[in-house]
Amino acid sequence: MTKHYNKTTEKIKRKSLRNNATEAERKLWQHLKGKQVEGVRFRRQYSVDSYVVDFYAPACKLGTEIDGDSHFLPEAIEYDRERTNYISQFGIKIIRFNNDDIFHNLQGVLLRIKKIILQMKKTPNLP
Q1: SS3 for the chain, per residue?
Q2: How far apart are CA 4 and CA 9, in angstroms?
Q3: pTM here?
Q4: Which CB contacts under 8 angstroms, 24+ apart, belong to 77-85?
Q5: Which member of 54, 87, 112, 119 has the lowest number of beta carbons within 10 Å of its beta carbon?
């Protein structure tokens, strides 16, 4: 399992990202930690090779990304697309929210995550 996931070579990066989480990440984490959404455990700053996913639910292979303003620059959009395609090769579904979603529609974000988890539980073999 550690061949691609949470490599020790990425540990410092993961720790730094956890310690320097954005306000939106901290806010969402308060609602994901402790199996609060459908009893599913989420991990913060989970790495797949050299890429780090903001939140990851291993049981249903769901990655959740929170995008700030820098993600909307053309080069960042392309990087995120390549990153998502790479991570998807491992059967991980990536969903994205922006900071405004977290700050102004947190319940909607949580509902979307819940719906996706329920859908993935019904069809566990689909990425």
Answers
A1: CCCCECCHHHHHHHHHHHHCCCHHHHHHHHHHHHHCECCECCEEEEEECCEEEEEEECCCCEEEEEECHHHHCHHHHHHHHHHHHHHHCCCCEEEEEEHHHHHHCHHHHHHHHHHHHHHHHHCCCCC
A2: 11
A3: 0.89
A4: 83/51
A5: 119
- State phi, psi for 124 to the nearest 5 degrees: -65, -20
Structural domains of the chain, ranges and CATH numbers in brackets: 8-122 (3.40.960.10)
The answer to whether 83 and 52 are in contact (CB under 8 A) is no
DSSP bridge pairs for 52: 47
